[in-house]
Amino acid sequence: MSRIQQPLITKDVFQFLENLKKNNSREWFAEHKTEFKELEAGVKGFYTALMNKLKAHDDIEKLKMFRIYRDIRFSKDKTPYKTHFAGSFSRAGQRLRGGYYLRLKPNETFIATGFWEPNKEDLFRIRKEFETDASEIRAIMDKKSFKEIWGEMQGDELKTAPSGFDKDHPNIDLIKRKQFIFVKNFSDKEVMSPNFLTNVDLAFQEIRPYFDLMSDILTTNLNGESLLD
């Protein structure tokens, strides 16, 4: 039985994006619209294949592919097109928090996951949890296989303790965070490898204990009682 070939991100995709970067105009894009549509279809196929892999180990609600067109109304940069492809995968239901993101760009491809902009209530709840006990989150982040893939937590943070929290608290490094995200970069060679789809999926599988813990935190109070109906 022949092995089913996984969708690939080809050199043509990155070459088109490089050319677009050099010729970021409506006139050039119009002349190459057919080529773009063909490449876009292949890229969407890759994202769809990744979504199907994610669904094997997580409850994914939807895939959102971002448009190539830039909103330039309030930007000083008036170039009309993005020079990358990107898409996000939303987890389903009230109980599941977090999401997955993949951006494809020559020399700047990365995956990201976690919590970009927690609302005020969620941010406070996370901080209170870490004020009480951060042993579980540290155990997840200190796991060797996790560190090898994701490294350290990234994202914006306050310069000092948020209001109501002790600046000398032993978990202040976590408490003062405003974002709780992880990022992994890929070289162009890695992106065009036949193993890229599998490697991205494995990285996202490794983040699952983090999502499980954060989802539990955000759906319970400090006494562990559910906040869901």
TrEMBL record:
NCBIfam families named in the record: TIGR02453 family protein
Coiled coil, from the record: none
Protein name: TIGR02453 family protein
